[in-house]
Amino acid sequence: AQSVTQLGSHVSVSEGALVLLRCNYSSSVPPYLFWYVQYPNQGLQLLLKYTSAATLVKGINGFEAEFKKSETSFHLTKPSAHMSDAAEYFCAVSTMDTGRRALTFGSGTRLQVQP
Amino acid sequence: DTAVSQTPKYLVTQMGNDKSIKCEQNLGHDTMYWYKQDSKKFLKIMFSYNNKELIINETVPNRFSPKSPDKAHLNLHINSLELGDSAVYFCASSPVGSYEQYFGPGTRLTVT
What residue spans of A1-115 are helical by DSSP H? Predict the structure, then answer.
């Protein structure tokens, strides 16, 4: 079985500050990991993905995440927050062991950006 | 050039009614999914179809029935709607051999 834990349901940063959203996963087989962003009343947009290639993954809108197997983590970062980054962020995991390809999501982290 | 589309975007109905939500993807993907997002924003897989074949059927009441007429469409029919069915329902699709998924805009279902 696989699972995802997102630490911090709410994160508030100042505009221009570093954004760090934490994600830890549990999986008995090598995982595929994803970050999605959800703006109010919209669907989920794929930010970035880890699929066993490079451990440092760059995504859209200046976000990146680093896969650390020893820490079972896949934290999302952005060097400088922008007001438009305010949204809900979801970490998700999938594995190929069952061939299901369904995503298991974390509970989400709401990012607030203060002016 | 919408990739994954859902209709309707909003659906308000009374308890006991039957309703359907439609999903279409024009990405040429082979697998489609339905997810439910509850009031606390938690997302959970409901169903998955691969090339019109049901792959995943999570612990969902049998009042919910997915139907896939072809690879590009996956509809969700709900019978005898209950208050607890109120949620946002997302359709998603993924390419052949890939694990990333692309989501539709969601359908907000409100049961009164």
Answer: none
- Of B87, B98, B97, B56, the residue nearest B74 (C-alpha): B56
For residue A31, which residues of chain B lie inside 8 Å, CB to CB? Answer: none
Residue B54: half-sphere exposure toward Cβ, Cα within 13 Å? 10
Buried b (16+ CB within 10 A) or exposed e, B16-47: eeebebbbbbeeebbbbbbbbbeeebebbbbb
Q: For A64-115, how does the pLDDT look when each residue is reduced to its tens digit (9 = 90+)?
A: 999 999 999 999 999 999 999 999 999 999 876 555 678 999 999 999 999 9
Task: State which amino acid sits at residue B93.
Answer: S
Asked whether the bond before B8 is cis by omega within 30 degrees of 0, the reply is yes
- Residue B66 near chain A (CB below 8 Å): no
Give B6-23 pLDDT, tens digit per residue. Answer: 999 999 999 999 999 999
Does B102 touch chain A if contact means CB atoms closer than 8 Å?
Answer: yes
- Given this model, what pLDDT does residue A54 score? 86
- Residue A65, classed as helix, strand or coil, is strand
Which residues 22-61 in chain A show a CB within 8 A of chain B? 32, 34, 36, 38, 41-46, 49, 51
The answer to whether the Cβ–Cβ distance between A108 and B41 falls below 8 Å is yes
